[in-house]
């Protein structure tokens, strides 16, 4: 069985304690690899390697650092098939999604920040006749990047690329649930000639490796994507140490459909927004609010399309819905479907576990599920399920739907469907969310600020925001 290693100081090494964790293929419900069950000893080695590498990496010209990221982007593209197969095996997502979404985005992240760093300029402020200020942005030193299982290489690279481009050395921890592509990336880092210690990848549990990174006094910056509960515990450790934090957390995103929408586009994209990656994206539109005059027509078309989604073997071309990432997560998703029924909801599509025939008969699959008849403020409609479950709710007025949209503790993203531009602006500005899409969903421009309000996070990633996060500004004021 494949035995993964940590990547520390440029070498692939076994964990100090010699312990391993099983990694499962959720589509077949069986173990397919072992990953290091690392602990604080491995984190210490990684931090020491990163500290040693930092002075030379920080002194390396931005152009040279950028070139190394561009080389990594090329290598990711070159190994697209192998990486996509690994991602599909680890997550249970359709191979076609891994090939067209996850892995291409990973190379885009590298390419984007390999280039962006060349354009990241210092600010200067002139005080007429008195002084000139210029602001230098220094890398922090060693930064910690902790990423989740839903979009493994996509989100891992989304963090490490700006951190490295800005001149930091990185200790990174992929999710223990989906470690494979980060491991393969460490091999590509060796091939690309990344200097030893610049990037270190420590595999293992969050409560051991992640917690040790967050508590480490020589890691002053943490970038985290994952559940809100975990984000809260990271913040509790980091706050008294005055660490700089970027937290990208959960979402319970409203998808607001007005009667004047482009109907066909609204239906097709709402299905994608609800069920892409089996609903396991923090941006998924998991609460659909439809203007009452359109409600029945929308419901019929939506349910028809949902019933046509193919739940099946991730390796088959026609599969649109793969497996749920783990047995534990499957149970969580199923428990929310039961909760929805107990809260008075009616299942209008799906609503149960699916047994896929053949190779995947022991896999963890859930039918894409649509529920109606729930109160806007019940638990099903306010807690993050993070699975293929969506609710439908009618509304009568703009004021009412804004109340529904804003009634959760989350504030990550929202989509608004209307042909009325004035209404689109008006509603967009009143929804409490960091990312608003009008007549689209998950249309990403990597230059834009990405992140959430309220319990969806702290800070923003993307574009120059991430380069600002991963640098410490220092102002120099010169009297004229
Ligand atoms: N991107 C998102 O918004 C994600 C949201 N979630 C939500 O969170 C729920 C729980 O999923 P989990 O897999 O448990 O996510 P999680 O938040 O525990 O995992 C994310 C990452 O944090 C690490 N981690 C866990 N505990 C840590 C700690 N104490 N200190 C530092 N790092 C730690 C994990 O090992 C993983 O690398 C999901 O059901 C879903 O609702 C989960 C994954 C991604
Ligand atoms: O940057 C993106 O395009 C998507 C990010 C998605 C997440 O952060 C998530 O699902 O956790």
What features would you highlight for this structure?
Aldehyde Dehydrogenase, Chain A, domain 2; Ald_DH/histidinol_DH; Ald_DH_CS_CYS; 480 residues; oxidoreductase; seven-stranded mixed β-sheet; single chain; binds the ligand O=C(O)/C=C/C=C(\O)C(=O)O; 25 strands; alpha/beta; Aldehyde_DH_dom; NAD; Aldehyde Dehydrogenase, Chain A, domain 1; binds 1,4-dihydronicotinamide adenine dinucleotide
Summarize the structure.
The chain is of the alpha/beta class. The chain has helices at residues 40-59, 62-78, 80-91, 95-116, 152-165, 180-192, 206-215, 228-238, 263-275, 292-307, 327-342, 379-382, 398-405, 421-430, 463-469; strands spanning 2-3, 6-8, 11-13, 20-25, 30-36, 123-127, 131-139, 142-146, 169-173, 199-201, 221-225, 244-248, 254-257, 287-291, 346-349, 353-354, 365-366, 369-372, 389-395, 410-411, 413-417, 435-438, 453-454, 457-458, 471-479.
Topology:
Blueprint: E1 2-3, E2 6-8, E3 11-13, E4 20-25, E5 30-36, H1 40-59, H2 62-78, H3 80-91, H4 95-116, E6 123-127, E7 131-139, E8 142-146, H5 152-165, E9 169-173, H6 180-192, E10 199-201, H7 206-215, E11 221-225, H8 228-238, E12 244-248, E13 254-257, H9 263-275, E14 287-291, H10 292-307, H11 327-342, E15 346-349, E16 353-354, E17 365-366, E18 369-372, H12 379-382, E19 389-395, H13 398-405, E20 410-411, E21 413-417, H14 421-430, E22 435-438, E23 453-454, E24 457-458, H15 463-469, E25 471-479
Parallel strand pairs: 1-5, 8-9, 8-11, 9-10, 11-12, 13-14, 13-21, 14-19, 18-19, 21-22
Antiparallel strand pairs: 2-3, 4-5, 6-7, 7-25, 12-24, 15-18, 16-17, 20-23
Helix pairs in contact: 2-4, 2-6, 3-4, 4-5, 9-10
Bound molecules: 1,4-dihydronicotinamide adenine dinucleotide and the ligand O=C(O)/C=C/C=C(\O)C(=O)O.
């Amino acid at each position: 069985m494949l035995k993964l290693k940590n990547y520390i100081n440029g070498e692939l090494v076994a964990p100090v304690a010699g312990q391993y964790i099983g990694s499962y293929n959720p589509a077949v419900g069986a173990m397919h690899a072992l990953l290091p069950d690392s602990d604080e000893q491995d984190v210490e080695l990684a931090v020491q390697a990163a500290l040693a590498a930092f002075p030379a990496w920080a002194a390396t010209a931005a152009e040279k650092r950028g070139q190394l990221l561009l080389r990594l982007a090329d290598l990711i593209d070159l190994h697209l098939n192998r990486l996509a197969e690994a991602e599909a095996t680890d997550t249970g997502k359709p191979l076609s999604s891994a090939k067209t979404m996850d892995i291409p985005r990973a190379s885009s992240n590298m390419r984007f920040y390999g280039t962006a760093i060349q354009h990241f300029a210092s600010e200067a402020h002139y005080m007429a006749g008195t002084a000139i200020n210029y602001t230098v942005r220094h890398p922090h030193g060693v930064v910690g990047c902790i990423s989740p299982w839903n979009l493994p290489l996509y989100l891992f690279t989304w963090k490490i690329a700006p951190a490295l481009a800005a001149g930091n050395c990185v200790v990174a921890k992929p999710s223990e649930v989906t470690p494979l592509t980060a491991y393969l990336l460490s091999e590509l880092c060796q091939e690309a000639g990344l200097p030893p210690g610049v990037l270190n990848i420590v595999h293992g549990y969050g409560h051991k490796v992640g917690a040790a990174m967050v508590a480490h006094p020589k890691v002053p910056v943490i970038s985290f994507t994952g559940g809100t509960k975990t984000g809260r515990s990271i913040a509790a450790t980091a706050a008294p140490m005055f660490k700089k934090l970027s937290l990208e957390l959960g979402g319970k995103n409203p998808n607001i459909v007005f009667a004047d929408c482009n109907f066909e586009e609204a239906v097709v994209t709402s299905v994608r927004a609800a069920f892409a990656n089996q609903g396991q994206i923090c941006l998924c539109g998991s609460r659909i609010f439809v203007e009452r005059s359109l409600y029945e027509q929308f419901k019929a078309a939506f349910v028809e399309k949902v019933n046509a989604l193919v739940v099946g073997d991730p390796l088959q071309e026609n599969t649109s819905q793969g497996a749920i990432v783990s047995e534990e997560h499957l149970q969580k998703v199923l428990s929310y479907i039961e909760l929805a029924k107990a809260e008075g909801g009616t299942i209008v599509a799906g609503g149960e576990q699916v047994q896929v025939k053949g190779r995947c008969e022991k896999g963890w699959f859930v039918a894409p599920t649509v529920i109606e008849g729930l109160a806007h403020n019940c638990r099903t409609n306010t807690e993050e399920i993070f699975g293929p479950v969506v609710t439908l709710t009618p509304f009568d007025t703009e004021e009412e739907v804004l109340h529904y949209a804003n009634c959760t503790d989350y504030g990550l993203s929202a989509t608004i469907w209307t042909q009325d531009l004035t209404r689109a602006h008006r509603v967009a500005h009143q929804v409490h969310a960091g990312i608003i899409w009008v007549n689209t969903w998950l249309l990403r421009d990597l230059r834009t600020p990405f992140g959430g309000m309220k319990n969806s996070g702290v800070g923003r990633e993307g574009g120059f925001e991430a380069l600002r996060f991963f640098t410490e500004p220092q102002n120099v004021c010169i009297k004229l």
